[in-house]
């Protein structure tokens, strides 16, 4: 978690009124060592004026938007920036910490060591409640985001249609912590207590989402680990998981046509519920966490077992799988089986 990134010093530009709101950047300029309170929008780009602009060491509070990119920009950088919203927005006033707008084309944006929080909207009947930490809205733009904390927003922590490379992100207490619509490559994503889904995916058939390590924790509800809203054959690869969720949490919802590959530490039971692979936080634990199940790959489907889905291994299959005769296993998915006893 990234907190208190900027200490006010003699070298810090302290801005306590909205006078610095709606900054029109100058190409190639570095804005650094800033504390700003009360902007409506801190910085808004038009006609390429944010090319090669860097904002570094900034602590901002805004009422609606921290940074808004409206047109094509190259080399826009946010480094060690915190942006917090000061109010709940109403009507069509979409709030976000960073917006890379739909008209920005193949822009290049980099974010590192940042924090975006509190971007919320009033709930209106029959209307979608928006409000994102980071919103990247064009499929041709490039977003590189690393070591960033996105929390307590009314919609997405990270909501991206852009070509996104993500490294060590944490999202907490958003409606959907990670909302992915386009090409996405992530090293480590940590998701804590979302209200609807840890990772939510929709988009086109050519979309590929790869996550090296997915860490999910939830002590308040059974939001799905992965929710795929698209009926198109999106491709999703999650290589490894650390899971600490409440009973009844689905590992995957939706995506009947999706091609989803789970790594060996991403486990679910016969009902599709996620199997914990990490110790639950103490405040939610009512019993010691179950040991990590033993999973074996048979290379083919084993002969049908009992009506309850359990299979007792004879000497032949026990030897092939390196288990003792009469071991009981349960089918998980594909050719994978979980040792029951």
Describe this entry's structure for a reader.
The chain has 341 residues and is mainly beta. Helices cover 2% and strands 45% of the residues. The chain has one helix and 28 strands. An eight-stranded parallel beta barrel has the order 4-7-11-14-17-15-12-8. The protein is elongated, with a radius of gyration of 23 Å. The chain starts with 12 loop residues before the first strand and ends with a strand. Mean pLDDT is 85; it is low at 1-21 and 282-290.
Summarize the structure.
With 341 residues, the protein is an all-beta fold. It has one helix spanning 315-321; strands at residues 13-15, 30-45, 54-69, 76-85, 88-89, 96-100, 108-112, 115-117, 120-121, 132-136, 142-146, 149-151, 156-160, 163-167, 169-172, 176-180, 184-192, 197-201, 208-217, 224-228, 235-238, 241-244, 252-254, 259-262, 295-297, 310-312, 328-333, 336-339.
Strand-helix topology:
Layout: E1 13-15, E2 30-45, E3 54-69, E4 76-85, E5 88-89, E6 96-100, E7 108-112, E8 115-117, E9 120-121, E10 132-136, E11 142-146, E12 149-151, E13 156-160, E14 163-167, E15 169-172, E16 176-180, E17 184-192, E18 197-201, E19 208-217, E20 224-228, E21 235-238, E22 241-244, E23 252-254, E24 259-262, E25 295-297, E26 310-312, H1 315-321, E27 328-333, E28 336-339
Parallel strand pairs: 1-2, 2-3, 3-4, 3-6, 4-7, 4-8, 5-9, 6-10, 7-11, 8-12, 10-13, 11-14, 12-15, 13-16, 14-17, 15-17, 16-18, 17-19, 18-20, 19-21, 19-22, 20-23, 21-24
Antiparallel strand pairs: 25-28, 26-27, 27-28
